[in-house]
Amino acid sequence: MPLAFFGPSGTFAEEALLTQPDLAAQDRVALPSIPDVIAAVERKEHEYGLVPLESSIEGSVSVTLDTLAFESNLLIQREVDLAVRLNLFAKPGTDIVDVRSVLSFPHAIAQCRKFLKRRLPAATQVAANSTAEAVQRVSNSKRVDQAAIGNALAGKLYGLQTLARNIGDHPEAETRFVLLGRGIPAPTGHDRTSIVCFQHHDRPGSLLGLLQEFAARSINLTKLESRPTKKSLGDYCFLIDCEGHIADELVADCLRTLTAKQMTVKFLGSYPVAGQAARARRGTVTKAWRDANAWMEDLRGQVRDE
Predict the structure, then answer these.
(1) Tens of pLDDT along 68-99?
(2) Where exactly does CATH 3.40.190.10 map onto the chain?
(3) Which of 211, 213, 238 shows the shortest CA–CA distance to 225?
(4) Which of 38, 138, 173, 281 could form a disulfide with 190 if both were Cys (CB 3.0 to 4.6 A apart)?
(5) What are phi and psi for residue 204, nearest 5 degrees?
(6) What are phi and psi for residue 185, nearest 5 degrees?
């Protein structure tokens, strides 16, 4: 089955999957929204789906988090971090002074506030479902006073000219994407586990009690975020990322204890941490375990038979 991704063609999601050789080699299908990607994988029309999860500038992509937390049973298979470089595109022949409206994904518009305030203060900002859809709409429109914020892949794909390059307020911005599917990948030595915790009762100290379970086992949290449960005002759940894999006894014991004592826990996945540093750390961990196993086997080989 082809791989589904948040489209249309030319999104940062497609750019992210193209950085993964095994994913880039697969047939792929662009779907118009994040819930559409997740639902298609749920229906087994696609084995995997790639969607954005988090921006280093604007934080979590709420539609992804909420769909995973409340509507889906899919699990995260891997994360893909992508450096985000935003450009301003328009129809050939358009000058930046002619632009009256700017289209893009809300997260992308938010990442270009300083540029838009400085160069296009009077332009109307129009939300699109994705950066690529914004570029596509400008390309298909008869208007010549529109521009779109997107990536170089989309600008080239839809035949627009570049009015300005790398216009993001933060040049080192990154977006994290996740590959969704079924099952749990094997531990690699440097993994992340994601969960959602729902309180049984809202009482003083409940969050502290949750955090103490991780602290008591020296499990490092890499993310803690509250989200409304959509039941009533003031009713929140907690989305947590921690280092480690469900196959690790400490992580398993922590989640077991949380479920037994104070929380309903929804498991979102255990998966490899992305990035060059993560690969180096995995290699170090693998060597350390290999050396430790060799040492232990040597010791056991010295046990005498009675």
Answers:
(1) 999 999 999 999 999 999 999 999 999 999 99
(2) 87-165
(3) 238
(4) 281
(5) -60, 135
(6) -60, 150
Cα angle: 200, vertex 201, 202; to 5 degrees: 130
Asked if residue 192 has pLDDT above 70, the reply is yes
- How do residues 217-237 score in pLDDT, each as one tens digit? 999 999 999 999 888 887 889
C-beta neighbour count of 208 within 10 angstroms: 9
Q: What are phi and psi of 167, to 5 degrees?
A: -95, 5
CA distance 14 to 3: 10
What are the residue ranges of CATH 3.30.70.260 in the chain? 184-301
Bridge partners (DSSP) listed for residue 199: 263
CA distance 152 to 86: 8
Query: How many CB atoms within 10 Å of residue 18?
Result: 15
Q: Give the Cα separation of 21 and 215 in Å (integer).
A: 37
The sign of the CA dihedral 213, 214, 216, 217 is positive
Helix (H) or strand (E) segment spanning residue 236 = strand 236-243
**How is residue 97 annotated by DSSP?**
G
| DSSP secondary structure letters along 242-274 | EES-TTSHHHHHHHHHHHHHTEEEEEEEEEEPP
Peptide linkage before 8 cis (omega within 30 of 0)? yes
d(CA 34, CA 31): 8
Say which residue the tokens 């229906």 belong to: 43
Q: Are strands 191-199 and 75-83 parallel, antiparallel or unpaired?
A: unpaired
- Homologous superfamily of 87-165: Periplasmic binding protein-like II (3.40.190.10)
CATH architecture for residues 184-301: 2-Layer Sandwich (3.30)
Query: Model pTM?
Result: 0.82
**Cα–chain center distance at 30:** 17
